[in-house]
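The data layer described in this paper is built around a simple, fixed record for each protein. We quote a single record here, exactly as it is kept in our systems:
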Amino acid sequence: DNTLRNPVVTSPLYRTGPGKALPPGLSLDPSSGLLAGIPAAAGNFDVVIERHDPSGPATNVQSFTLTVAPA
């Protein structure tokens, strides 16, 4: 299973931040926050995930470097 899960949050909208795309082959489910797939390229990728609460103005932003090792 090649997934990362956030089991606590159930209803917010998730998206990648401006100019910070996921590595090719990975996708982010906008309703669950599930990051899934098999990366198609090795390297270090600067990723920003934004969580927007539909019931209010709350926004959480998480920045990190995702390292994908060569196969």
User: Anything to note?
Assistant: The radius of gyration is 13 Å. Strands lie at 13-16, 26-28, 35-37, 43-52, 59-68. The mean pLDDT is 80.
